[in-house]
């Protein structure tokens, strides 16, 4: 007589399959399109709750390192980080203070990163020596903090641009190199590259006549971090557009003083003709994006009077005027998202790569993946039936192996993990290793002839399970580094292979043992 006590493992398997099926098809658990762990995602057409990665949905992938050289254990000598940045930049021919990042790591010691292209390790060593800073080692690449800052900024850029489903993460190669991996579904390559390839630096410069009368000079008077809030890009009734901004109180006084000293906030305000006549204009404020002057404007009489009287700093607000709404929106994106601490390196032998998968190609990959899975199932089923020639042994084996796939699919749907080709490969590996373990169980149990009692079955089953457990432990140990480390596509393969092994050892293999015992034991 069959009892729940004797077959609770089968009942547990059934429960897991039902829960997984519910996660796959229940409309109440349908995930949104905001993205999931492991890559850019796109929702299925509505049949299931599965989400698909870039390879199966289409879109753009960009993989690139950050430009930079880092000096470690730099002795700051009591200087503040910004002073260190200015001093080091002054010793480099093609760098500005915004291209140098000084990060304290201890008392008067830290790292100095130069994030401009074409600066060598030797040049950074020489610049540190001339600036009077002792240092430890100099290496290629940037710090982990800079990489995480870059991920955060790129995520903000993607969100501000309305590219839903886009994801950004850091990955590390087997040789220890670090890359930024960006995946944006349903977007072409040029659009994504235009958004993420530039650093997005935005500064305000004063442009005013030099004291000796020999032309004009510039002076940086506001950096990106000096803005407290960025308003929405708005079209002006008089033409053009503007972005209302508020300056941090800590920077407002210095900005106000600089505007007065450079003549921008002169009585009656200033009229800027920089674009028409840069060598004959009144003092201007220049809006510089990515090193390029995108706009120049003077100062209204009211704003100039407020700065000269000192009252403006109490409510430090003004407008960044642009020629059109598109330009204003781009300025707003750069200001809100922040500047990339370092540029993505898309050149050189270790430079970045970008790829585009069309939606139709992604659909083909999806269909081919399904076909491959079905072929694997039928191939395994054929081999199993040919091996045993007994339906009562082979059929439960195939059904049990397929239940593992259902459980894993339900898990992926439940947490919103996007399926890509590497995950599909993990599923196929799970089918193969799962059936292999079930064959070990069946051979061990049936190899020595008829099973006359539960005790005999349990003895044979335990021998087989020790072999399966040892193999599972080996697989988990081998795959764990790939699952933990950020190694791109290999991570998804490792995660689902490990999950498949755990589901097999804890749920499906014991359940198959109960099924096999019920079908083969002669004891009443």
TrEMBL record:
NCBIfam families per the UniProt record, alphabetical: PRK08343.1-1
Q: Name one GO cellular component term.
A: plasma membrane
Where in the cell?
A: Cell membrane
Give the source's domain of life in one word.
Answer: Archaea
Task: State the organism of origin.
Answer: Halopelagius fulvigenes
Q: What is this protein called?
A: Protein-export membrane protein SecD
Q: Which UniProt keywords apply?
A: Cell membrane, Membrane, Protein transport, Translocation, Transmembrane, Transmembrane helix, Transport
Q: Where are the membrane-spanning stretches? A: 369-386, 393-417, 423-443, 464-487, 493-512
